[in-house]
Design brief:
The complex is a heterodimer of chains A (about 260) and B (about 260). By secondary structure, chain A is of the alpha/beta class. Chain A contains twelve helices and nine strands. The chains are: A alpha/beta (about 260), B alpha/beta (about 260).
């Protein structure tokens, strides 16, 4: 060929970004079986794309049993490339386990087919209170929480760091006013994919509020990485989005 | 990030959209993004025509083609309603390209792709050997990829681009099913959902020759598809075919 391997060219550009992916799941999935990845396979896929670390939740927690999934996350070890995002429930037992095991991040699954609890404060208020008191990074998908419930949580817990996953590319008319009003709201890039949307966002809001997410193993990281790589923004902003912002949020946790 | 291969893109737009803000969508801004990514040729359809007004939208495409003849190719977008307008539009704008490039958007026009209102368009496309880009979506009664199989067989001189290849994981498999059975159908990679492994499956099942690079620029970020293709586990020769030569061949601009 008259050019280096296209995949090599791609990964070469990302090599020094120290990418920390905020939106990854591991383990077997009944719904997404063909795409699900076990730990070794996930690490190999991260290697292929130059992704250094990932904040991961477990399919078993999401699709079957939160406690079992969290136990499986424990087997990944601590201090490695995979950082655990626990599944938490709005009851005293689950909060007690958070106190005992002290994860720096949780991922909440409100949907009826998942953990089937309300994101409203009347249901999840005590859980939010613990997470806020310990600055635990709290991951939720837009599909699971919805804009109006998200506003309720933000209004009541102004120090709870919330990372909104999978906003979709039609989000800006909701997202912009919320980001202006609530300094504890962050979002990931996995589905923020409209034409020049990310670079336009950085020009308007800076790079502090957005973190890289791929949606592995469902999506190829190639898409979200290419958007970040091709964004016409300063490299310092690119580094923040690629990993620095997520590292800062996790270091801020006091579990 | 810039693609070393000049890209020929089968699926672009011109204009804005009602449900989220548009960024950098003037013609000079689009050219700037195309240059940045090395997107040499973009086939455009008017977004105005897809939403609300085909005659006005096609006139916008005509002006873009006059202004940037080397960079854009123009689809004529037609709507089954008002009755008779489609053939008038096809006649009026036949100088865009020959054989004609035709865009059908059954979802936004709210009319089934196999309904009688589209018959005159399919007859025209078959007589002229047109290239017809059809918006598709997983299992949609108006535009499921599966609806294209009978049309591809009946109008066998028409070359049908399965727009977005059905979008979802299941939609992609529907598109693959059609492409496997009808040689005059082509798989378009345009879309916001970047399913892992699907491109490799498409190449294995139908071959790289009938897979086309598409971006949706300036609706979606062209880097999505660029990242997917560059990092796929397929040969660089196949990547070059997908990024460039397949669509040029369909346009009759090879070599």
């Amino acid at each position: 060929m008259r050019f280096a391997s296209l995949a090599e060219l791609f990964v070469r550009e990302i090599a020094d970004w120290h990418v920390f992916d905020a939106n990854v799941r591991v383990g077997p999935s009944g719904v997404h079986g063909e795409l699900a990845l076990e730990t070794g396979e996930l690490l190999a896929e991260m290697d292929r794309f130059g992704i250094e670390k990932a904040l991961v939740s477990h399919w078993t927690a999401e699709e079957y049993d939160a406690r079992e999934g969290n136990r499986l996350l424990e087997t990944l070890g601590r201090g490695g490339r995979l950082v655990r995002a626990w599944a938490a429930l709005p009851d005293q037992d689950s909060i007690g386990e958070l106190v005992a095991d002290r994860p720096r991040a949780v991922r909440l699954h409100f949907a009826a087919q998942k953990h089937n609890f309300s994101p409203a404060v009347w249901c999840s208020g005590e859980l939010y209170a613990y997470l806020q008191d310990h600055s635990v990074l709290t991951l939720v998908t837009l599909e699971d929480i919805g804009w109006e419930r998200l506003v309720e949580v933000l209004n009541n817990f102004s120090r709870l760091p919330i990372l909104l996953l999978e906003t979709g590319y039609r989000a800006d008319r909701y997202l912009f006013p919320l980001l202006r009003r609530f300094s504890n709201l962050y979002f990931d890039t996995s589905t923020y994919v409209a034409h020049r949307q990310l670079e336009s966002f950085v020009q308007r809001f800076g790079s502090e509020r957005v973190v890289f997410g791929s949606r592995l193993p469902l999506y190829t990281p190639g898409a979200a990485l290419a958007i970040l790589a091709s964004a016409r923004i300063p490299d310092a902003d690119r580094m923040k989005i690629a990993g620095e912002n997520l590292r800062r949020l996790l270091e801020g946790a006091r579990p | 990030m810039r693609c070393p291969i000049p890209i020929a893109d089968c699926h672009g737009h011109l204009g804005v959209h009602p449900d989220f803000p548009a960024y950098q969508c003037t013609l000079p801004e689009m050219i700037g993004v195309m240059d940045h990514l090395n997107l040499q040729v973009l086939a455009i359809t008017s977004t105005r025509a897809c939403y609300t007004d085909c005659p006005a939208g096609n006139a916008e495409v005509a002006r873009a083609l006059e202004q940037y003849p080397a960079r854009f190719r123009g689809y004529i977008t037609v709507n089954p309603y008002p009755e008779g307008q489609a053939l008038v539009e096809l006649e009026q704008w036949k100088h865009f390209h020959w054989p004609p490039l035709i865009k059908l958007h059954p979802a936004l026009h709210q009319y089934p792709i196999h309904g009688p209102g589209y018959r005159p368009v399919w007859d025209y496309a078959n007589q002229t050997g047109a290239l017809v880009l059809v918006h598709t979506w997983d299992s949609d009664p108006l535009c499921s990829p599966l609806l294209l199989l009978d049309l591809a067989r009946e109008f066998s001189r028409t070359r049908i681009i399965i727009g977005h290849s059905g979008v979802t994981w299941r939609g992609y498999h529907q598109a693959l099913e059609v492409a496997t059975q009808a040689e005059n159908t082509f798989l378009d990679l345009t879309g916001s959902q970047s399913h892992r492994t699907i491109l490799e499956k498409m190449v294995a099942q139908v071959g790289a020759e009938r897979i086309l690079f598409g971006s949706d620029l300036p609706f979606l970020d062209a880097a999505i598809t660029l990242g997917r293709v560059m990092t796929a586990r397929i040969s660089d020769a196949h990547k070059e075919a997908i990024l460039r030569t397949n669509f040029l061949r369909l346009l009759g601009e090879e070599g």
